[in-house]
Amino acid sequence: MHWSDPDSKITSLKVGLVPSSIGMDLVEVIDDPDRNGVFRVTNKNTQVFKIVQSDGVNTHEQSISLRGLTLAPEVEG
Q: Is the pTM of this model over 0.85?
């Protein structure tokens, strides 16, 4: 996943899958120079992609459903 530069007023931008298959919290990406992220979807019916941005005063959260994804079959190995 690649995201564009956030609004210059944003001081925090966190992204991640909820719930995470490895128990990881959302990741701060405001200072990530390449603006890329890799996330492992293990259950498109229960996980959502969550975005939380803040300008230091106001916080905005957005959750994106993954139910419409087509996942490749798991490869054993």
A: no
Count up the domains in the chain and report the number.
Answer: 1
Secondary structure (3-state) at 63: strand
Boundaries of domain holding 32? 12-65
Token pair of 33, please? Answer: 């120079």
- What was the pLDDT predicted at 6? 63
Quote the CA–CA distance of 35 and 73 in Å, as a whole number. Answer: 27
How many degrees, rounded to 5, is the angle at CA 56 between CA 53 and CA 61? 25
Q: Angle 16-71-44 (CA atoms, 0-180°, nearest 5)? A: 45
Does 43 reside within a domain? Answer: yes
- The string of pLDDT tens digits covering residues 16-49 is 999 987 777 898 888 888 777 788 888 899 999 9
The CA distance from 32 to 74, in Å, is 30
